[in-house]
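Exercise: predict the fold of this chain.
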Amino acid sequence: MADVYDGFAHIGHVLATGVRDLTTDLAALDGEGWWAVVVDYEGKVTCARFDRVRPAPLPRPAAAWRGPHPGQWRSSLDRDAYEHGVRAIRDYIEQGEVYQANLCRVLSAPVAHDADPLALAARLAAGNPAPHAAVIHVPGLSVVSASPELYLSRDGDVVESRPIKGTGVTAGDLLEKDYAENVMIVDLVRNDLGRVAAVGSVEVPSLCAVEEHPGLVHLVSTVRARLEPGNGWPELFAATFPPGSVTGAPKSSALRIINELEPVPRGPYCGAVGWVDADRRRAALAVGIRTFWISAGEIRFGTGAGITWGSDPGREWLETELKASRLIALASTGGDT
């Protein structure tokens, strides 16, 4: 499997090798071939088309993962700064500017320049299996994701999103605030999809279902729609990106507040990571949460929480810690859980 190191993707139990094309044009996804896709939260697009695509397990890495020491991780917002941000968002809510906004921070640490994303992917697959696990390694980009959240799937003209809002260690930890937050984001996703959907086709088959994941539970809803003829991937992204669950409502106000309060770019975190089979008109793109990216001798990982009027600053900080702790331990030297 030496060819994987020249560029590969493993997503949805499919191994793709032999990079044929790299493009920043989302319209290519309405053409031909099988594509791995990463879209940064800030909108930078990477689409990689591969020559060889087949069902296969994750390849065995050449060597074990060598990650940073647990004490080397640094956060773009420390606890005081994060809690200050939560209070600032609550002030904006009181002023009527926003109902909910996601506040995130990026953890970073040094890593060897030859750090192998395949080795990290194998470590996450063993210690934190995820429904939308992915590893994409192409020139200029290495992303390893253990995302539990579906941003967009597609089967012909039918598209679906499964936003997550509400997190706890157990279902008993979920608060009224979590359910209210989920419903607000469902309304946002319905509105986003409605911009490109056939009239009357938007529906919510499932609302606030409790899903169990390693070390925590989430509230998950499902929104489904049928695309209006003539709308493809550029129109879908224009209507729905960045994902509502990692921005807030109203989205335009939340984006402005996020830009004000977060000191560093989110990058692939909170963006989109997944695959598109243009020939079969099928796709699955995850929200880029529980996601690492590696570049220039540094590894990064984002974590965040949705802030509402009912948010307690200390509890929201602890939610970001809960979401990060298992994965940061796995990505750190000697970090077995």
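Check your answer against the key: The domain at 2-331 is CATH 3.60.120.10 (Anthranilate synthase).
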